[in-house]
């Protein structure tokens, strides 16, 4: 182990002894392979660069372009809930008929077991008018574990 040098130590030594160059002074790969290739022109002339910066600053979005305001209610003056968030209490003729038939046949539903918030809409027919219920055929406990 005395005759071997540690690779990390030799790498550190090589990096500290290497001459430092800036990127702009480093020739491109193409210039290294073929010295007759002319070097690229400077990125932008000072006048053009100033003009470009001015245009970018004028067209740049402000913080207001990304922020928006949301109206918030208070306890004394709450905002009404949106229509899509309001649920009706389960009920109606179709709902009552389905519930009575399920009890009569001693059937259990996934809807009731999972405490589905849409139970009233499904059992009463909803928008289409077709009342539906999902029946469990192998018992009264749903084992799916929905959360």
Task: Summarize the entry for a quick read.
The protein has 147 residues and is mainly alpha-helical. It is 35% helix and 3% strand. It has a domain at 93-136.
Description:
- Strands 1-2 form a two-stranded antiparallel sheet.
- The protein has a domain at 93-136.
- It has 147 residues and is mainly alpha-helical.
- The protein contains six helices and two strands, in the order ααααβααβ.
- It starts with 6 loop residues before the first helix and ends in an 11-residue tail after the last strand.
Global outline: elongated
The rounded distance between the terminal residues' Cα atoms is 61 Å
Share of residues in strands: under 5%
**What is the string of SSEs from the N terminus onward?**
HHHHEHHE
| Number of DSSP E strands | 2
Question: Uncertain regions: pLDDT < 50 for 5+ in a row?
Answer: none
Q: Provide the gyration radius in Å.
A: 37 Å
- Name the structural class: mainly alpha
The largest sheet has its strands arranged as 1-2
| Average predicted local confidence, pLDDT | 74
Q: Report the major sheet.
A: 2 strands, antiparallel
Share of residues in helices? 25-40%
Count helical runs: 6
